[in-house]
Amino acid sequence: MIDFQNTRGFICDMDGVLYHGNRLLPGAGEFISWLQREQKEFLFLTNNSGSTPRELQQKLARMGLEVSQEHFYTSALATAAFLKEQAPGCSAYVIGEAGLLNALYDAGITMNDVNPDYVVIGEGRAYSLDTLTKAVNLVMKGARLIGANSDVSGPIDQGIAPACRALTAPVEIATGKQAYFCGKPNPLMMRNGLNLLNCHSAEAVMIGDRMDTDIISGMESGMATVLVLSGVSTRETVKSYAYQPTVILEGVGDIPILAAHA
């Protein structure tokens, strides 16, 4: 068991942990209130590159939860941080939404559809055969291929939608080049998160609903891990993985209760 009362930092996934689509999950409000009341360091992480931290803040506000925007970190921000460190002042051809474009602009990366250093792909409605063809030919000319995250699909109200890895795959297949993915489970994103919290991995826990992104990234970064059963993974699917979470809970609302009884 994890001593939640004495844990300093919490890195927490969002979809499937705090909410499903536009529906708040049971216990999420109590968990956030507890984090704030106990003055814990916390960061909400999402692999979705489409939204800005401000948009995520406003999404929670619409559900009645007040969280300031410095508590949000996305795969778009992780991608921008990676490119800024690798090639300051580089240029990119980008397929994605405002979250990705804003993060890249803020990191000093310019947009270029002629001879960019990188082709960067995230989730987005701008994706089309034309943008795909442009991306393929730029990669063939030498641009390096980056994906914001390696999620194949994501939940929507009508079922699932193809996510970043599925959208990047046609470029990989057509060019024979492999993309580098910056979001979870890449430990780079987790280390950035820990740095933002000013926490060591031994002082923090990772909370998520997916074994293949949240739990593996927390484990590989040296954190204790909490799998919640309010999203993708179930007790049955957990058994098929070689690695296991530190703790399995029904939802994040269990954490304040366990902390109170520690």
List strands and helices in order, with pairings.
Blueprint: E1 9-13, E2 19-20, E3 23-24, H1 28-37, E4 41-46, H2 53-62, E5 72-74, H3 75-86, E6 91-95, H4 98-106, E7 110-111, E8 118-121, H5 129-140, E9 144-147, E10 153-156, E11 159-162, H6 164-175, E12 180-181, H7 187-197, E13 204-208, H8 211-220, E14 224-228, H9 235-238, E15 247-249, H10 254-260
Parallel strand pairs: 1-4, 1-13, 4-5, 6-7, 6-8, 8-9, 9-12, 13-14, 14-15
Antiparallel strand pairs: 2-3, 10-11
Helix pairs in contact: 3-4, 5-6
What does this structure look like?
- This protein folds into two domains: 4-47 and 184-260, HAD superfamily/HAD-like (Rossmann fold); 76-181, HAD superfamily/HAD-like (Rossmann fold), CATH 3.40.50.
- It has a six-stranded parallel β-sheet. Strands 7-6-8-9-12 form a five-stranded parallel β-sheet, with helices on both faces. A two-stranded antiparallel sheet has the order 2-3.
- The mean pLDDT is 95.
- Helices cover 37% and strands 21% of the residues.
- By secondary structure, the chain is an alpha/beta fold.
- α5 links the parallel β8 and β9.
- It is globular and about 60 Å long.
- The longest helix has 12 residues, at 75-86.
